[in-house]
Amino acid sequence: MTRDDVELPGWVRELLSESRFDRYLKKAGGDVDVAVRLYDWNVQVSAAFYGPLHWLEVSLRNALHHRLRERFGRDDWWKTAQLADNAKFKIGRARRKIERRAEHTSDDVVAELTFGFWVSLLSRTHDRQIWVPAAHRAFPHYTGPRNALHHDFMGMLDFRNRVMHHEPIFYLDLPEYHERIYRLLGHLSHDAARHAERTDRISAVLDARDV
Q1: Quick check: 32 pLDDT over 80?
Q2: CA end-to-end span of the chain, whole Å?
């Protein structure tokens, strides 16, 4: 059965779009009602992931910022650090955006930088300039190689973007992503991981899946 063989409700066709709904429809075997329920569940589980992802992203950002500020002896450490061209571009874009405000600080630049920027600081490109002298100290509970940590964060970056851009995640190994968030957060702070777990709803939403 193809998408053309199914009569979609007008609101689904016009507001969700046929292309967006198609993945759900295929998973539901062409049953529109089941596909709508699956779409609803995808929204619910994405919302449940928002909180833990928030903790991971903000914690990574600030942990790296604190260590780099210590290393270079200034709040705007990016003016001294040797960074890859793409990282420099992202900083320039963030600075231009916040400089439009009447008042701004280095903290505003830090908050404006994307999760992808912070993850890039763990890459091989920044190994000697960032990881070895400073960034590794942001992970007091991690003893493995930098490349494995970067790989884990790259996978989380892709997952985070799918959640934040309202893409389907129902077909992914969600328990594995759930575990990975807390594993990575635990590398930064055991206390932060325990705190985030207090309001975590992911397991409950996963257990309640009925479609």
Answers
A1: yes
A2: 19
pLDDT tens digits, 111-152:
999 999 999 999 999 999 999 999 999 999 999 999 999 999
Domains held by the chain: number: 1
Q: Which domain holds residue 137?
A: 43-208
Tokens coding 96: 């231009």
Taking each helix axis from N to C terminus, what angle separates 32-72 and 190-197, rounded to the nearest 10 degrees?
A: 150
In whole numbers, what is the pLDDT of the chain averaged over residues? 95
C-alpha separations of 189 from 96, 146, 194 in Å: 32, 17, 9
φ and ψ at residue 119, rounded to 5 degrees = -65, -35
> Domain for residue 5, yes or no?
no
